[in-house]
Amino acid sequence: MGSLIRQAISPQTKGWGRGVALIFDCMVACVIMIIGLAAYSSLATQAPPEPDQCLGDYATHVLSFLDSNGCLARLIEGHDSSAVRRAIGELLPEGTSYCLCVYSPSWELNWSFSSQGFDWRNAAASSPYLVSCESNPEPYLVTLAISE
Amino acid sequence: MDQAFEATIAFAIFLAAFSVSQYTAVAVYESSMDRIDKPRLEAAACIVASEILMQNGNSSERWSSWEPVCEPGCYLSPAPGVEIAIRATCYSIDPSGGITRIWIKQGPAMHPLGAGAQKYVSGIVLGDGTFVRLEVYASDGLT
Questions:
Q1: Between B32, B95, B124, which is nearest A69 by CB?
Q2: From edge to edge, which strands make up the β-sheet containing B118-125?
Q3: Do A144 and A63 form a contact (C-beta atoms < 8 A)?
Q4: In chain B, what are the domain boundaries?
């Protein structure tokens, strides 16, 4: 096949020696192999990293801690995003970003905010966390997603 | 003259193709090795973190007196040749939502473990209302 290609694409090489022709055939085979390997390597390295499940469990622990003395409810009720940002930012490991979402009991998004660099594609989220507020008889559903 | 020119051209083409194929093969090999090593290191970090959490539980006294030991053998880790680094941080929260760091403890080998290190993070709310974040890094020591 390599010989046919060589004859088809470069008629001026008819006068070259057999050794060069064999090397040219090998080159065609190598190029085909390289293209295949490069495609495989590209697909393997371009795949987004899988979310780290331990971060999802950790996010649940963070919400549980913030809710332990009613702080989470007060922060959500007061829509005090800067305080929530400070608290969550302090508790998360270095190099991570987060997104906090607050939903109504019917899963309508009330409000949310993300830190810089947050990426849903490699984020792990906590289990939905129920937060009760004094002013609202219905509890909020809160999720915290963390990405690296 | 023509044969020498042919040989030079052929050798140059061969050298270029051979270099590219070797480079690609090495990249594919490294990528495959990373995918094989990652679950092993993640499992080692998870085992170490779980055992530390089991040893100390939610007792603030145990966590206060605990010191990290970075020998994987101390934590029943089945992965030989794995380097471990541990960092635990304790936080408290005031009624206004302010977070205060109470203490931080880290293993003696808390140097950067390289790009291949895998991290396992866990947290626990202690009995006195404080919170401990536990980070365990595992590396095969080659990177």
A1: B95
A2: B99-106, B83-93, B131-139, B118-125
A3: yes
A4: 1-32, 36-140
How many inter-chain contacts (A to B, CB under 8 Å) are there?
105
B10 in contact with chain A, both atoms CB, cutoff 8 A: yes
Q: Is the minimum CB–CB distance between A21 and chain B shorter than 8 Å?
A: no
Cα–Cα–Cα angle for A22, A25, A26, nearest 5°? 90
What is chain A's Cα-based Rg?
Answer: 29
With CB atoms and an 8 Å threshold, state whether B123 touches A27: no
CA angle A116, A121, A123 (to 5 degrees): 65
pLDDT tens digits for chain B (143 residues)?
577 887 788 788 878 878 877 887 787 777 777 767 777 888 888 888 888 899 888 888 899 888 887 676 677 666 677 788 888 999 998 877 788 899 988 876 555 555 667 888 999 999 888 999 998 888 876 54
CA distance A142 to A135: 17
Q: Do A64 and B125 touch (CB under 8 A)?
A: yes
Q: Decide if B74 touches A, using CB distance below 8 A.
A: no
What angle (nearest 5°) sits at the alpha carbon of residue A67, between those of residues A63 and A71? 120
Report which of B35, B107, B92 is spatially closest to residue A71, judged by C-alpha positions: B92
